[in-house]
Amino acid sequence: MNDTSTLPIPEAAPSATSARRVIRELPDELISQIAAGEVVERPASVVRELVDNALDAGATQITLRLLAGGVRLISVEDDGGGIPMAELPVALKRHATSKIANLDDLESVGTMGFRGEALAAINSIADMAILSRATGHASAYLLDGRSGELRPVARSAGTTVEVKELFFSTPARRKFLKTDATELAHCIEAVRRHALARPDVGFAIWHEGKLVEQWRACPHPDAMDALTQRLRDVLGDDFVEQSVAVDYRSSAHKRPHEEDGLPPVRVWGRAGIPDASRARPDQQFAYVNGRFVRDKVITHAARSAYEDVLHGQRQPVYALYVAIEPNRVDVNVHPTKIEVRFRDSREVHQAVRHAVDDALAAPRAAAVAAAVSVAAPLATPASPESASIRPPAQAQWAQPAMNFGSGNVGHRISDFEALWPVRAVVPSPSDAPTPPLSATEAPPPVFATAPATASAPATAANDEAATPAATPTATEAPAWPLGRALAQLQGVYILAENAQGLIVVDMHAAHERIVYERLKLQIENTSSASIASQPLLIPVTFAATPQEVATAEAAADTLATLGLEITAFSPKTLAVRAVPTTLAQGDAVELARSVLAELAQVDASTVVQRAQHELLSTMACHGAVRANRKLTIDEMNALLRQMETTDRSDQCNHGRPTWRQITLKELDSLFMRGR
Questions:
Q1: Is the Cβ–Cβ distance between 141 and 127 less than 8 Å?
Q2: Across the chain, which distance is largest between two alpha carbons, in Å?
Q3: pLDDT per residue over 48-93, tens digit each?
Q4: pLDDT per residue as tens digits for the range 400-416
Q5: 401 and 456 in contact (C-beta within 8 Å)?
Q6: End-to-end CA distance of the chain
Q7: CA atoms within 13 A on the CB side of 288
Q8: Main-chain dihedrals φ then ψ at residue 324, nearest 5 degrees
Q9: From CA 47, how far away is CA 485, in angstroms rounded?
Q10: For residues 520 and 390, is the Cβ–Cβ distance under 8 A?
Q11: Strands 573-580 and 565-570, how do they pair?
């Protein structure tokens, strides 16, 4: 039995008859120390605030010097505009700042800092000194934070802030600090976040007299090139090589009662390919107007763009930068300014999601094509121009469209056989006999000409697409990124060769993605701006929380675009009166709760689209070509050509890769050639 006799017993709350405490005004020093508890959590917090001030001063080079992980010394040197002598004593006063002067400035903050309490809070818990020389002034001055003494010193233009013995006036706070190595890592991370946002500024970090990190300024005239170079320097070459560029600008729109359209939201940066995903979200960097933030809207939007290309619970990697009008985002919602609130969070959510989704959609085989133009050709050389403009070969099959009319409620898997009509293929004498189909197995698709059907009559385009494309011979230049098919391995993999070496394709996974993307495209083409909904004969009611009721009332228009009609049945009950047509057979209550929960958090919901995509993914999985199905060379080449022109064809619907490249160098190393 545990001994609880030594545990402290909480005191009872003071009764009304006990002596009441007098309401008094707190002294300034205690007020600053309380504020320091919010602003200064550890040495990295001081580093963040001081680097913010240096960037606001227009610095082009910032040097950080630390001792004992920042506990004994934090020194931030910059070459910015400096502080005039008359303003140095004012800089250490509470709520003194040069960033804002009125409410209009506060509502459109364009600087990193603006609260005017960081220096005063730091000065109350540490030994602080500021050495600064303003641009155009003849002398520099040193201000002692403890005594207030101001004396002239020698320094070039810029500012140096020294913070010694952090938490010396509040020793209890020091007990919560970690080891010097841990605190140093947090300080480096704080500077790294700034470095990723400002490639035009150089950063250097010294610890115990040794240079531990240095990132030189990137002088590239093009902003995207400078950012790419800084990402390469800070996050490594692998991050850049395994990511795609993001550059998206939303269209301007008008709000009610506004005459002029709002300026667009721009999203740029780099998004990691699915193969670069990690087990933890430790390489996800999001910036709003140059400020590093942890925002659930941006995080949710980026994650939703990776929904059907990531496997399991893998986490994407990205560095995304959002530019938006300062008066449309509120940065004054957190003492450390790491959280923001958007005026129209749904607009930002859609911009980020579309930006990442568009960047990931292009098949990465195009990157192989770029490498082909540089690498030595396998046979006859081909000019880069002809390789870049040569159209992909036509597919070896024609797919009739399917009818997704609102008259049908749900679809059977057998309905999707219309996508891949079966035609008898006469095997060559050298072909092995095809394995017999089981009683429960649907006839697998064959990459052949589709006969005309009532639902999809044959057209000239279909006839042209069905014309077999000539298989490239050994003397032709392999202009196709995924090369030309060589053989089929164990009825599962397709082996192909390109200028890089050997391509291995999982034919079921690849075909599954092709079918899935066509189904999604067909849904989008047959749908209007709002998702088609089906009224329920008997509305489904469920007990709702006050937040769910408020969300249903406030987001009625958004719910309508998602194909949902949710109304208040009573103060504590909601009724689902209509659901999306394609999800009519699902659980209406579970769908409604999921959508309302997401709308309450990020003012946007992808639950309906996610559910639709899961349904289409299942249909595509059953409609794709099965393993152990023998394909001809023409059929394999047709599949490769479709992969090269299908969005997100590098991953299947479940996030698994569909193809892998084995270079000649890797093959040579296996056989120790050239050694």
A1: no
A2: 104
A3: 999 999 999 999 999 999 999 999 999 999 999 999 999 999 988 8
A4: 444 444 444 444 444 44
A5: yes
A6: 70
A7: 27
A8: -145, 155
A9: 57
A10: no
A11: antiparallel
Which DSSP category does 194 fall into?
H
Average pLDDT value for residue range 182-203: 95
Instruction: Label residue 211 exposed, middle or buried (CB < 10 Å: 0-12, 13-18, 19+).
Output: exposed
Burial of 151 (0-12, 13-18, 19+ CB in 10 A): exposed
Question: Minimal CA–CA distance to 161: which of 77, 97, 81, 82?
Answer: 77
Reduced to 3 states (helix: H, G, I; strand: E, B; else coil), residue 372 is helix
Average pLDDT over residues 647-659: 86
C-alpha span between 211 and 65 (Å, rounded): 9
Q: How far apart are CA 397 and CA 467, in angstroms?
A: 8
- Amino acid letter for position 94: R
Q: Which among 256-260, 298-302, 480-484 has the top mean pLDDT?
A: 298-302
Report the C-alpha gap between 630 and 636 in whole angstroms.
Answer: 10
The residues near 627 (Cβ < 8 Å, ≥ 6 apart) are 491, 492, 507, 508
Helices (H), 375-434: 384-389
Question: CA-based angle 20:26:30, to the nearest 5?
Answer: 125
What gap in Å lies between CA 400 and CA 420, rounded to an integer?
A: 8
- The secondary structure of the chain in percent helix, strand, coil, rounded to multiples of 5, reads 35, 20, 45
- Order of strands, sheet of 210-215, starting from the edge strand that comes earlier in the sequence: 150-153, 140-144, 127-133, 158-164, 73-78, 61-67, 202-207, 210-215
Bridge-partner residues for 161, per DSSP? 76, 130
Sheet containing 573-580: which strands, arranged edge to edge?
Answer: 533-543, 573-580, 565-570
Look-up of token digits 């809070």: 121
